[in-house]
Design brief:
- The protein is built from eleven helices and ten strands.
- It is of the alpha/beta class and 286 residues long.
- It has a domain of 127 residues: P-loop containing nucleotide triphosphate hydrolases (Rossmann fold), CATH 3.40.50.
- The strands form two sheets. A six-stranded mixed beta sheet has the order 6-7-8-3-9-10, sandwiched between helices.
- The chain is globular and about 75 Å long.
Length: 286
Amino acid sequence: MSLTTGTAGNAPSSQSISQPEQACMVFDGVRFGYGPRTIIADLTLSVRPREVLAIMGGSGVGKTTLLRLIAGLVKPQAGGVSVFGESLAGYRADRLYAMRRRMGLLFQFGALFTDLSCFENVAFPLREHANLPESMLRDVVLLKLEAVGLRGAADLMPSEISGGMARRVALARAIALDPELILYDEPFAGLDPISLGVTARLIRRLNDALGASSVIVTHDVEETFEIADRIAVLAPSSDGARLVALGTPQDLLASTDPYVQQFLEGRENGPVQFHYPAPSLSETFL
């Protein structure tokens, strides 16, 4: 809920001053796993209105699983997930689909439809979820492509553009319905330095222009620290990944947590060991 301000000669109401804005997504003591293996243990975390929250950590700690939990694609084994102020527990399919229309998702590597043009890729969610006249749909699609610098590529096929351009088309598709919450699954993976920087700055600009909130799952430290408001770091443990740090980029740079330091600096030695547990060499070869 956005705060209201008073017009000239009228003071803001006491309600508009005191009522805090509601988090658009909340994990409350969430635990999740596949079969007997726990992936995420006791996670409590929220996404604030209009912020870019990055979720970082090593491979296999469940970062992408968190996006699946937010979208209601999987359910927690314990704890609760709330999106837009409503718990997803017991959500009917029709309400879940309606909630997802308020989200945008950028898949890892873009996941464009290869047999559709760039224009039709961006138009796809609009054709599925918005009853727009063709002339208005065309204008919306071209405006979204313009926002990512690719209006001139509207009639090209995905095979005719670079990987970085394809990622930007996918981003235009993710924001086609003006989502309130945008989820990014490894948006920088496989990009060259120029495309990586362009994509990162687009994420920040589009988040601010839409007044949305964004959740980025990523390994890329440098670019993420440039655009994120807060960063959550997950670390593996014997009973599932746990949140070990949460704060601004400056907070994390000052962290004394051994895992955070190892992750940010790419150290070989630390809580995550180079050698997978194995018998000693003498036991193996003698």
